[in-house]
Amino acid sequence: MPDSIPDRTRPAEPVAPASGAPAFGAPVFGAPAVSRRAWQALIVLLAGMFMALLDTTIVNVALPSIRTSIDASEATLSWIISGYALAFGLALIPAGRIGDRIGHKWVFFTGLALFTLASLACGLAQSDVQLIVARVVQGLAGGIFVPAVTAVIQLMFPPQARGKAFAIMGSVIGVSTALGPIVGGLIIEAFGTDIGWRLVFGVNLPIGVLALVATVFLLPSGAEARAHAGVTAVTAATRATGSPAGAAVGRAGVDVVGLLLLSGGLVALLVPLIEGEDRGWPLWTFLTLGGGVLLIVAFFAWEVSYARRGLSPLVPPHLFSHPAFTGGVVLALVYFAAFTSIFFTISILWQAGLGHTALESGLVSIPFAIGTIVAASQSDRLTRLLGRNVLVIGVTLVTIGLIWIWLVLLLVEPVTLTNWHLLPPLLIAGLGSGCFIAPNVQFIVATVDRTEAGAASGVVGVMQRVGSAVGIAVIGSVFFGTLNVTGPSAANLATAFTHSATMAMAVSAGFSVLALVLVFALPKRLASAGPGH
């Protein structure tokens, strides 16, 4: 395993922008400097990122309200979270590839517009089926525009400034996911149960409309971004396909078979995990799991064959030729399985088990949010100073925090459990998450060529979303599968839900321990490469 990897996002040699192409951000020649417009464009990109990731956790505190308002089943609650995450993940790779070919600006705009409309549909849903469908569309839309965020950052910012941009992105990721329960709790507290959960989705509407208008004026077009990156259109096409421009490009299309195999495999794995416990684990659930594994194997075999024919596969197999990239995407899956499920468990315990309000449930996550903000703001500096150790420290802190929460749930009397018991471990876990998220993305994406940043971002994002979906499905199955309420009293409810939360948190902690082992698959340091890499 190498101690360091070159930053392959830098072009082989500087190329002057095409005649008439507007200067965007840093000049290609000389010392790099980042323009005001580049930072403004970053704000637009991160507004979209904020919306997409806020919706991964803001719904958690609304689940009890949704359950009573539209009479949703336990499986439906898991689908509301996992369906969003899975659809999100399935769209990431094709969206990244399309953005690499035609430019990321209008892919970002299209996905953001659909996401905003789907958010409105979620708020207007009258049944659990309507809500699940709207959430799936919302997740699909998020998966369309999110790959453009990382890809455009790679193109807009030179290596010397890219770390800062990724650190800001990491802060947004951490803050949006951590603040979701707080924002959701405030809305439900202010507007009541029946209207409040609908307005939780309405948060996206004003942000989405403003971001769409800003996208038109601030984001660079495909040609403009390539010119800024110092890559001509011909060079970009050659690098993206691995063959002379016009050869594979003309034959390359959407890898429909690959997309169907991947989608079918992931759905086949997720459906039994969500529905199995609710239906008593009949034979079809195990057969479906086995079928899902076979479809995933068939997907990877197809991608290799597709690439050998000179076509552009959904997931370029050569991305996995570097051990750091392969290890990193597996790490992303396992880490997000642990990370996302924390808020699902705590929200259900706090409201359905301990009888607290949605706002009180959301306030529990404040220590995590604070820790994430503090650590993420320093993640770039810590990465330069510590290299991979910042990731090791981050996952270690998350693991300590989750084990601590598990011990609190195990040892503290349920009726006496308060948010003060969880404050220290959630703060520690938040610090760890802030240390991990942005540097991890930077380590993984920097292992591939700059022109394939969209594809690499898509792969990493898929693993994150699949991890979230699998984590929620597994945790939901453990939580509700071990739930046995013996009586209607508050004490019985508290005891039963705390027991289930303890079991669920043990699984989350187990995911985190595995992530701690996998983090050592990444290289020790990111080394800037000279020309030619």
UniProtKB/TrEMBL annotation:
Query: Which parts of the sequence belong to the Major facilitator superfamily (MFS) profile domain?
Result: 41-527
Annotated localization: Cell membrane
Top-level taxonomic group: Bacteria
One GO cellular component term, please give it.
Answer: plasma membrane
Q: What are this entry's molecular-function GO terms?
A: transmembrane transporter activity
- Keyword hit for Membrane: yes
Question: SUPFAM superfamilies this protein is in?
Answer: MFS general substrate transporter (SSF103473)
Annotated keywords? Membrane, Transmembrane, Transmembrane helix
Q: What is this protein called?
A: MFS transporter
Source organism lineage? Bacteria, Bacillati, Actinomycetota, Actinomycetes, Micrococcales
